[in-house]
Design brief:
Elements: E1 3-5, E2 8-10, H1 19-27, E3 38-45, E4 49-57, H2 68-72, E5 75-77, E6 80-84, E7 90-93, H3 95-108, H4 116-129, E8 141-150, E9 163-172, E10 183-188, H5 205-220, E11 225-229, E12 237-240, E13 244-249, E14 254-256, H6 267-278, E15 283-285, H7 290-299, E16 302-309, E17 313-321, E18 326-328, H8 336-349, E19 360-362
Helix pairs in contact: 3-4, 6-8
Bound molecules: pyridoxal-5'-phosphate (PLP) and 2-OXO-4-methylpentanoic acid (COI).
2-OXO-4-methylpentanoic acid binds near residues 79, 242 and 310.
GO molecular function, one term: branched-chain-amino-acid transaminase activity
Protein name: Branched-chain-amino-acid aminotransferase
Enzyme class: transferase
Length: about 375
């Protein structure tokens, strides 16, 4: 035990990757496959509350086969990034917003809430311990994955009472193998992602498990990602499996689906709305139908569409395909409004521009 960050005791990994090993791993990390030397962990029990907060060597987890989560998916997670600044320092982007969303996810799954401050401290402490893993290549960053699950070892389908909270970090480059090219979407008419009253507005592993079959169908159809429609009318465009969506019109205005409880309230979405309005653009949070999307793309009323999220940042949508749709947006390539918003966002995140909204949490 050498150091503390708030509640988190640091126990250094005696087998850290060497400088050269680390440099090799950071150089071509892909997404979500390369992990840093440490992880944060903390436990919850009803009698002790949150305790045993530490940053320690990244190790495996030992679990009873009846661990409730393996049977009933009592699991939530978050995703945020640490960025390398021009002066060599590092920063997080809106970790308080992730902390609040983690709380609402916990509440929806009847899990113990994690105080906002402990969430932020855990992320800060892990990134400080593994700061050498933050890439400095253009566009690369350290993706941080806080998650929590019930550890009670019984098969009773009731809320868990004990939890393990854990944070992993991994260096990442571009989320899409295609880099900055526009992506192609598959319109899922067989599957929906979330229904009213369900868990669509929170970040639980179960939402992603249920979307994988649609994503696989999209891949078979030659598309990069799936776009989901609402579960009731099968008409309104909701979001992608891991990204929110924006539409850009000929008159320069933007539109994005409203937060009606079936889509994830993305922090990138929220940040882009603020940035776009700051540029004087009109942004509507209103429903948009798949048929309108096709008609508007064909008539030229719709000039761009893009997806956004922590992992994917801002990615233009070039083409949309489905059993009843096939259309190209603009010239099928990346669009200028997406590019401008992406620059505005990443210039703040990487410390190349001022941070007027106080979004950065420098480490
Ligand atoms: N929608 C879904 C389903 C997601 O998984 C994500 C990624 O976290 C997003 C949207 C974008 O959210 P954020 O911008 O907070 O990363
Ligand atoms: C994110 O952008 O943080 C996501 O969670 C998307 C995906 C990797 C699940």
């Amino acid at each position: 035990k050498q150091d503390t960050e708030g509640a988190f005791l640091l126990e250094r990994n005696p087998d850290c990757a060497s400088h050269d090993e680390r440099a090799g791993l950071i150089a071509a990390p892909g997404f979500g496959r390369v992990f840093t030397d440490h992880m944060a962990t903390m436990r919850y029990t009803p009698d002790r509350g949150w305790h045993d907060a530490k940053i320690g060597p990244r190790t495996g987890l030992d679990m009873h086969p009846a661990t409730k989560t393996l049977h009933y998916a009592i699991e939530i997670f978050e995703g945020l990034k640490a960025y390398r600044l021009p002066d060599g320092g590092a920063t997080l982007f809106r970790p308080d917003a992730n902390a609040r969303r983690f709380q609402s996810s916990a509440e929806r799954l009847a899990m113990a809430p994690l105080p906002e401050q402990l969430f932020v401290e855990s992320v800060r402490a892990l990134v400080r311990a593994d700061r050498d893993w933050i890439p400095s290549a253009e566009g690369a960053s350290l993706y941080i994955r806080p998650f929590m699950f019930g550890v009670d070892a019984d098969l009773v389908p009731d809320p868990a009472s004990e939890y393990l909270y854990c944070v992993l970090a991994n260096p990442v480059a571009s989320y899409f193998k295609s880099g900055d090219k526009a992506v192609t979407l598959w319109v899922s008419d067989t599957y929906t992602r979330a229904a009213p009253g369900g868990t669509g507005a929170v970040k639980c592993g179960g939402n992603y498990a249920a979307a994988l079959v649609a994503q696989a169908e999209g891949k078979r159809q030659g598309c990069d990602q799936v776009v989901f429609l609402d579960a009731v009318e099968r008409r309104w465009v909701e979001e992608l499996g891991g990204m929110n969506v924006f539409f850009v019109f000929e008159d320069g205005s933007l539109q994005t689906p409203p937060l009606t409880g079936t889509i994830l309230p993305g922090i990138t979405r929220d940040s882009l709305i603020t940035l776009a309005r700051g540029m004087g653009l009109t942004v509507r949070e209103e429903r948009y139908g798949i048929d309108e999307w096709q008609a508007d793309a064909r008539s030229g009323r719709l000039v761009e569409a893009f997806a956004c999220g922590t992992a994917a940042v801002v990615t233009s949508i070039g083409e949309v395909k489905g059993r009843e749709q096939a259309f190209t947006i603009g010239d099928g390539g990346p669009g200028p409004v997406a590019a401008r918003l992406k620059s505005a966002l990443t210039d703040i995140q990487f410390g190349r521009a001022p941070d007027p909204h106080g979004w950065l949490d420098r480490l």
